[in-house]
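Case study 2.
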Amino acid sequence: MAAREIKSILATDCGSTTTKSILIEWRDGRFRLIRRGEAPTTVEAPAEDVTKGVLNAVGEIEDLEGRQFLNDAKDGVLVSEDGSGVDVYCSTSSAGGGLQMTVAGVVKSMTGESAQRAALGAGAIVMDVVASNDGRLPHEKVADIRRLRPDMILLSGGIDGGTMDHVVELAEIIRAADPKPRFGVGYKLPVIYAGNKDARKAVADQLGETVELKIVDNLRPVLERENLGPARDTIHELFMEHVMAQAPGYAKLMEWTGLYENGTWRNVPIMPTPGAVGKLIETVAKQLSIHVMGVDIGGATTDVFSVFDSEGQPVFNRTVSANLGMSYSVSNVLASAGMENVMRWVPFHMDEADLRNRIRNKMIRPTTIPQELEELIIEQAIAREALRLALVQHRELAVGLKGVAQERTIGDAFDQSSSGATLVDMMALDLLIGSGGVLSHAPRRCQTAHMLIDSFLPEGVTMLAVDSIFMMPHLGVLSEVHPQAATEVFDNDCLIKLGHCVAPAGPAKRGGSLAEVKLTMPDGTTKTESINSGVMKLVALGAGEKVNAEIVPAKGLDVGEGPGRTWTGILEGGVVGLVLDGRGRRPFNLPEDDVKRVEKLQEWSAALNTYPERFLSLGGGR
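Prediction:
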């Protein structure tokens, strides 16, 4: 079936707790989201068959649409050539803990980091990075590999033609550990070797009998270049062959996904959920030629994705903060951020013991949602810190290649960070996308915008957006089959634009004006808005409304064109509006005095209409 003949698409995402299904169809000359269904995931006891949850989620769409999408026996998705059922069925999965990997490299900050980027980009959770210089004794490395029981191991090390001894030693450690896979019995653990090509025979001699060894091109054939593609493709392949095939019910699900192409059945591989989201972020950045960052905050983990330029080429990075989440990992957020950092975002006076108890209650009852506005505000305060810490971790991994000789000026002589400097440049960021329950399902979209601004601190001019109902995984796997459908649904139904955020960055005097924003409205009238120090302002500008703008920053401040230089371009509104953030230098400091801190938070909340003013004026209902 040619791509232009595809009219009906069904996609599912098998999450750790919920399986979500969506129906996409060709309507009025474009692809649109028609219906959504969901059901509990059934990969664990008592069902122990992931397809049960898929059938339930698709069955909900059947009931709502009054049409048949399951075969007559109700034991499979109906994909046919005659127009009955759907034309394409595809799926993603993170059920059963997703894809968990251990990676190994000779030097932790070089080939170890490259291996980590390859695994993360393929949608894996990296549980450990083993390196010759990681400070652990050989028996400690062996014990850690055995204890973690990864689904797969990626081994790298050495440039082509370089030394072989260290990477062979790592292979010996993996052989000694002899890790057993989480799923299935009687099959060997997949190990991918992506290191020095001269060491392939020696590594195969060490590992060939104990693991399922796959040899691919070197991740770092030379110090100056990474080659992550072959390793990522092989991770996807082995994820399907070994991990998914052994998980309860996945062998059956893998037979369902696909389409008929010119009369022949073509299977569409299941993708790890984070890998699918990353694929979509990459696709958007490439099609629009912009810098994009996306975040997915879940109950147990927070994923950050970004596409920024390095030496003129777009580079995709993904990180997983496996201990930062809003339910199962909420106590880890408190432990990592510290009580003071969480409490600083609560816009009313609160007892520290009360906050601790609320966080503990959330951890032991992870599926609960806030019942009172006070609880919602506390949860969103925690989310700000989880997002902030996830960005810190992302900056540390999304870096240029370490070990590469660089031309340095006298100003860099004492700057050790210039080699392997982060690629994340908030001033260059064009689009920031939020996803996950606390962001996608916030009662007010202005709450989502406020959380994104406070935690990521965008600079210059940045469009804020949110995934409406968390369908980015579905669209990511669909982009492999039908890019047009994925892009159209992403633009029309998935991505909700909140509006541009304008934030001058740099040192500024308190109380002064940071910038003047001159707007030329669609009717030809003009108006000027001031961005004042320490003040946030919301300008009414609806979804799809665009205005020509000229932003004149104060001396020394930058809005994207350099310190003191005027920015000209188009500003676009959204469901929130145009946000003017005058909090200046990043990161900004909240007042130390508790009374002044609360006053400032309430002032900003009132400006963005984040929470009801009456609630805040009563001191948070206290």
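Residues 452 and 517 are 22 Å apart (CA to CA).
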